[in-house]
Every structure is written in structure tokens, then in C-alpha cells.
Amino acid sequence: MKKILKIFLLILLFASCKTQNLFVNEVEPSKSTSFLYDANYQYKIRKDDKISLSVWGEDNLSVGSVYGIYNSNEVYGKWLLVDTNGCIEIPKIGTTIVMNKTIPELKEEIKTILKKWLVNPIIDVKVLNKEITILGEVRNPNTIQVDKDHVKLLEMISKTGGFDFYANLKSIKILRQDGENVAIANIDLTNPNDILNTNIELHPGDIVIVPSKKNKEFDKRIATIIPLTTTISAAAIIMGLF
């Protein structure tokens, strides 16, 4: 399984026209604002997100409704895809800009519009592809769907079955998209007195890489910012080198 994931990531890497040099002067991860805890953090809708819209008692206004008898969004493609302009096409409402809006903001906006036709619309909006990817020395490397905005590193590691024997707990990498750049946090889980700071909060779209113990020297030289790339490309580079 791990071998297949590495091959897949390498293919994605070489398919990209952007290549990066990871071996640059190291910056202290604590100086990166990308990973600061934010109690008010809410996921913001992104391009290519898959969104379902449920309007209670109004199947003709719903797409992939959670209120229906059958909920088969992923199987039958019942979602609204956010296009390159950050828009979706909502039944009866039409083209709606959704990118960079939070779920509560979008729900309130749709509800306000639907009040033109419905007395008290009850709606639900979901992003179906909110995911966190865990790679490397864990028992079951996988991409895990998350429904809530606030999840912790160790909580997600537990969903993979935990660390493998050769996991290097001193140099876990967390990759996060920050505009056109990828920020990297270097996490040391071996200090039990610092667990509140190292068990950091993950966001949907993050990629966690757990390297093996044999790659200590390589891990020390990885930059904490990779410019003009994506988390998938950055993960492919790192995974391909250990």
C-alpha cells in the first residue's frame, strides 16, 4: 500500500511543470503563521470542492440532499462542483459565487434568497471532499474524510491505526496550502511535556508525512516554505526522497 502511494505521488510530481529546491536554509517552524492555533477557524470553500445542498421538503431545489431517503452523493455524482471562477449553479437561484465563503455564510445567503418562495426554508450545505491525507510510517496510510473543522494531529493518526515501529516521531511533516505556497511544520512528538504544542490542529487539505528513522539528516534540511506549488506536489517530492 505504501509503495503504491509513493509511485502515485511521484507520477503527480513529474506531471507538474513546477519543480522546487527543498534543500534551503531551515527556518524555525514556530515562526510560521500558517500553523498558529485559531479558535475561530472555519473552513472556506475552495475551487473544485464538491458541495451538496439540502432543502427540507423541496427535492427540486436540492442536490444530493441529506433529507432524502437515499443518500448516494459520491456514487451517483450528486454534488455541485465549484468551478474555476469559484461558482456553482444552484437550482432556481442560478450562478452563485461560493469560493472563500464559510459554510454558515453560504447557508445564510441561500436561505435569504429562498425566502422569496419559501416561508421558513430549512437547508443544509456540506462540502463532501474535506479530507486530510496521512502518508509514511503509519499502519494504514490513507486519505481520511473529516466533517468538523477542528481536528488534532494525534486524532487523525489514530484513524490510520497508529505509528509503525520505524516511524521517526521527531520529524513529522505537516504540509498546508497557503495561497500559492506550501507551508511545512516540523513536529517533534517525543517530548511528553510539550504535547499541547506538538499535537497541533489540522485543517482539511493538510498532508501529514511520517518519515522513517533512517532519514534524520534529510529531514533536518527540508524548508518550512515551498513557493509556487501544491501540497500534493510537495508531498511527492518528500515521499520520493525517503
From TrEMBL:
One of its GO terms (molecular function) is polysaccharide transmembrane transporter activity. It is a multi-pass membrane protein. Residues 39-127 form the Polysaccharide export protein N-terminal domain. The chain crosses the membrane at residues 222-241. Belongs to the BexD/CtrA/VexA family. GO terms for cellular component: cell outer membrane; pore complex. Residues 1-24 form the signal peptide. PROSITE patterns: PROKAR_LIPOPROTEIN. This is Polysaccharide export outer membrane protein. It is found in: Cell outer membrane. GO terms for biological process: monoatomic ion transport. Its main location: membrane. It comes from the Bacteria. Keywords: Cell outer membrane, Ion transport, Lipoprotein, Membrane, Palmitate, Polysaccharide transport, Porin, Signal, Sugar transport, Transmembrane, Transmembrane beta strand, Transmembrane helix, Transport. Residues 130-210 form the SLBB domain.
